[in-house]
Amino acid sequence: MAENGEGLGTVPEHERILQEIESTDTACVGPTLRLPLECVCVVWHDFHVLPTCWSPEEGAAGSPQQLGDECTLRSVYDDQPNAHKKFMEKLDACIRNHDKEIEKMCNFHHQGFVDAITELLKVRTDAEKLKVQVTDTNRKFQDAGKEVIVQTEDIIRCRIQQRNITTVVEKLQLCLPVLEMYSKLKEQMSAKRYYSALKTMEQLENVYFPRVSQYRFCQLMIENLPKLREDIKEISMSDLKDFLESIRKHSDKIGETAMKQAQQQKTFSVALQKQNRVQFGKNMHFNGRIPEERNEVELKRAFEEEDENEEEVLTVQDLVDFSPVYRCLHIYSVLGDEETFENYYRKQRKKQARLVLQPQSNMHETVDGYRRYFTQIVGFFVVEDHILHVTQGLVTRAYTDELWNMALSKIIAVLRAHSSYCTDPDLVLELKNLIVLFADTLQGYGFPVNRLFDLLFEIRDQYNETLLKKWAGVFRDIFEEDNYSPIPIVNEEEYKVVISKFPFQDPDLEKQSFPKKFPMSQSVPHIYIQVKEFIYASLKFSESLHRSSTEIDDMLRKSTNLLLTRTLSSCLLNLIRKPHIGLTELVQIIINTTHLEQACRYLEDFITNITNISQETVHTTRLYGLSTFKDARHAAEGEIYTKLNQKIDEFVQLADYDWTMSEPDGRASGYLMDLINFLRSIFQVFTHLPGKVAQTACMSACQHLSTSLMQMLLDSELKQISMGAVQQFNLDVIQCELFASSEPVPGFQGDTLQLAFIDLRQLLDLFMVWDWSTYLADYGQPASKYLRVNPNTALTLLEKMKDTSKKNNIFAQFRKNDRDKQKLIETVVKQLRSLVNGMSQHT
């Protein structure tokens, strides 16, 4: 029963499997049925009922339903021992049923199949014919297509070539611009257009090379560009070096042109200013006629020079090709190495500046040396100023200011040193003009030049010194050529000539008829003219110093004072002290200095006129001519006194006294009469001197003569004097007194001049009268008759007379006749000695 129950349970399962096999596509059967189905398929294959859509590989995986079918199919084999058999029976039954159905279907369609076969057989013959025709047609077509194939292959080959050519053209269109640009680069390098070459390199690197970077020639070009850049740097630097060397050689030409242009502009401006002053109709003093005429001449000359110089104005660009600097700067800027270029340029220019600032050792000898020095410096800084304005960053204002300050200090030191060697005022003046032009030129380019004008004030003092030395020689020549006699005038023309040279005014002289004489000598108008020329020379240096008229006037007055107080005064003193200058010349020198002193006010007016300064201007320096010529006169007066005394000494040295004579000659000595005649003639010349000078000279001469005569008596070498000699000496003193009383020089009151001989007179009277008792009794009394007789002097002379009496027995007669007198002499000698001793003790 159990087995029947289990058999009943499996039948539905078998039915379901069979139903599924019949109704389901083989692909839908679960993959777990593969092995059992393969067996089934074998069975079904025998019956030709296996579905064509099934394959064993398609059931490798299954769904849950398929898994269930697998379990069901497995149950066919595993549940019961006969289950498989039963299933197979069922399966056979199904197969038979299907075979029957197939057979039925085949029987139903068999006639149709036969008809179809019959139709096919009928078509077979036509098909063979068609095959033959098709074959023949194909053969013919193949024969005809061979030429087409050949042409087609040619076309294909041409198409390939055309495609390749198109590709090549496209690639060449990419490469040709690169090659053209590279060729352009080579041409630019050959033409030395380096800046354009660098720009071309940038285009190649940024635009063209990226397009053809895959080609080997492009890599070679890329590798070659750095070398080209270095070559450009080296070449541009070489060009810069050549440029620096060129401007170093041409700096003097550049500076010369710049200074010439500055001079032309300055000349034209000055000419316009002078023309404006002339149009205002300024009237000058007659002493100012010369400068007015000079102004007109200079004005005319300035316009003529301006007309002659009306030519194309050259600039620094016309003289120098700055393209190497621009190229080099642009090249280094493009290369990103601009700082290196700037440092190199500034370093080299500083070296050149030091070379330019180094003067030649003999620069001070000629003005050309200074001019060459200045033109080189101007050329250097003109180039720097141009570089400053046309480039950005290569030269800065701070750099040029630093360079200029360094150069200015060096220039001032050089000029201060070399100008100290200049002894020619004309050279110093030309140096000043060059410095002014140098300063004005550089000032026009924006460089500060105040220190140069300060230096000019130092050079001005040196210029004044050289002028003073030059004028000292001029004055010496004038004094050497002067005849020291009044200027003779024979007609009106000569009179006007002298008046035009020297401002002399004397109504009395004007009233005199010709011929007549000016009181001064020829040196006076010559000196006056030379003083004016000195003022002109000083004015030349003061011009163009950018100073006010007041300052220029003050400078002229100070320099003129130096000329008067130092140079002229020294020349006068040296002249006065010269041995060959006699008394007549000294008298004329005194007269000359008087007139020169009076002319000082005209010199002040002259300075005022040429500087256009009002005389009422406050703090105007006065000329010191008054003190200068007074000092010269005093020196001349002193020299007159000295020379007069020397002349007296010369005459006194001619004295030839016989000090032992017994009787006098009865007339004065010849030397003394000659001396008196000389003094009379000299004092007549003194009438042109101021009264006090003549009186002082006369008094000094008489006093010196008196002293000389006294020294002659008291000479220590004179051992003895006779009474006859004393009497002869007394005759000479009487002639001196007569000369003094004759008033050789007017202006003495009473016996003032005779008092010069009072000492001699009282001494001789004492010995002539032999009035010792009175002398000894009144000695020391204010009213003493022999007040001027010194006991020592009397003792000396008395002892000389005593010695003479002993040797010549002059007093023998006295001893015989009057021994008391001899005792008196001894007593007098003793008393005189006691007086002398008393004076010594008192002293």
UniProtKB/TrEMBL annotation:
<dbReference type="Pfam" id="PF04091">
    <property type="entry name" value="Sec15_C"/>
</dbReference>
<dbReference type="GO" id="GO:0005886">
    <property type="term" value="C:plasma membrane"/>
</dbReference>
<dbReference type="InterPro" id="IPR042045">
    <property type="entry name" value="EXOC6/Sec15_C_dom1"/>
</dbReference>
<keyword id="KW-0268">Exocytosis</keyword>
<comment type="function">
    <text>Component of the exocyst complex involved in the docking of exocytic vesicles with fusion sites on the plasma membrane.</text>
</comment>
<dbReference type="InterPro" id="IPR048359">
    <property type="entry name" value="EXOC6_Sec15_N"/>
</dbReference>
<dbReference type="GO" id="GO:0090522">
    <property type="term" value="P:vesicle tethering involved in exocytosis"/>
</dbReference>
<feature type="domain" description="Exocyst complex component EXOC6/Sec15 N-terminal">
    <location>
        <begin position="90"/>
        <end position="259"/>
    </location>
</feature>
<feature type="domain" description="Exocyst complex subunit EXOC6/Sec15 C-terminal">
    <location>
        <begin position="452"/>
        <end position="800"/>
    </location>
</feature>
<comment type="similarity">
    <text>Belongs to the SEC15 family.</text>
</comment>
<dbReference type="GO" id="GO:0000145">
    <property type="term" value="C:exocyst"/>
</dbReference>
<dbReference type="InterPro" id="IPR046361">
    <property type="entry name" value="EXOC6/Sec15_C"/>
</dbReference>
<dbReference type="InterPro" id="IPR007225">
    <property type="entry name" value="EXOC6/Sec15"/>
</dbReference>
<protein>
    <recommendedName>
        <fullName>Exocyst complex component</fullName>
    </recommendedName>
</protein>
<dbReference type="GO" id="GO:0006893">
    <property type="term" value="P:Golgi to plasma membrane transport"/>
</dbReference>
<keyword id="KW-0813">Transport</keyword>
<dbReference type="InterPro" id="IPR042044">
    <property type="entry name" value="EXOC6PINT-1/Sec15/Tip20_C_dom2"/>
</dbReference>
<dbReference type="GO" id="GO:0006886">
    <property type="term" value="P:intracellular protein transport"/>
</dbReference>
<dbReference type="Pfam" id="PF20651">
    <property type="entry name" value="EXOC6_Sec15_N"/>
</dbReference>
